[in-house]
Design a protein that fits this description.
The protein has 3 helices and 6 strands, in the order E-E-E-E-E-E-H-H-H. The protein has a 6-stranded antiparallel sheet with strand order 1-6-3-4-5-2. It has a single domain (about 25-200), classed as Riboflavin kinase-like (Elongation Factor Tu (Ef-tu), domain 3), CATH 2.40.30. The chain is an alpha+beta fold. The model has no long low-confidence stretch (mean pLDDT about 90). Catalyzes the phosphorylation of riboflavin (vitamin B2) to form flavin mononucleotide (FMN) coenzyme. InterPro entries: Riboflavin_kinase (IPR023468), Riboflavin_kinase_bac/euk (IPR015865), Riboflavin_kinase_dom_sf (IPR023465). It comes from Aspergillus carbonarius (strain ITEM 5010).
Length: about 200
């Protein structure tokens, strides 16, 4: 069960991602368990978990990072989007296979739909993009997986995860990962990561 303690508003060092981050994962968007949108109201993009074999020490839990979708398959005004994601088994649903479930958030310049718990909680939604190649950079770890006493408690924790991810990514050293690969105000190693993130086979 989730500990009954206050959540930290940000996670990861202010100076930017530290080892082992950033971690690269990629794959086509596949159908998941079908619960994200239907039961939770939280759209998720699943990618195959095969590449996790490259990172045997990666903990299960909730992470934040940035995502790019192949523009030849899915047109988006923003080439890179912030994301919060779960890697693991989701104890609430007792999954038997490890999954990567990614929730794509709106640009950081847009109002956050998850900023407040007052009233019905809404989550960012994009049109379906099954089959679209997706590149993901993990930039930090938010928390371990927990079981929950109710669906509502799970949704509230995911809402807070979104806000922790947003605030963490708004810091200058992380915001560069959402910038253009040509932005010379960002370090060259970050621009190299962005080049990988936005490169797709034509």
């Amino acid at each position: 069960m989730r500990p009954d303690t206050p959540r930290d508003p940000v996670t990861g060092p202010d100076s930017g991602p530290s080892s082992p981050y950033p971690i690269r994962l990629s794959g086509p968007v596949i159908k998941g368990f079908g619960r994200g949108s239907k039961e939770l109201g939280i759209p998720t993009a699943n990618i195959p978990a095969d590449e996790l074999a490259k990172y045997p020490d990666l903990s299960v839990g909730v992470y934040y990072g940035v995502v790019a979708l192949d523009p030849s398959r899915f047109a988006s005004q923003e080439p890179i989007l912030p994301a919060v994601l779960s890697i693991g088994y989701n104890p609430f649903y007792k999954n038997e296979t490890k999954s990567i479930e990614i929730h794509l958030m709106p640009p950081l310049s847009s109002p956050s739909p998850t900023a407040t718990a007052d009233g019905p909680v809404t989550f960012h939604k994009l049109p379906d993009f099954y089959g679209t190649p997706l590149n993901l950079l993990l930039l930090g770890y938010i928390r371990p997986e927990f079981d929950y006493v109710s669906l509502e408690a799970l949704v509230e924790d995911i809402r807070v995860d979104c806000e922790v991810a947003r605030r963490s990514l708004q810091r200058p050293a992380y915001a560069c990962y959402l910038a253009s690969k040509e932005d010379e105000t960002c370090p060259e190693d970050v621009r190299g990561q962005i080049r990988w993130l936005t490169r797709f086979e034509s």
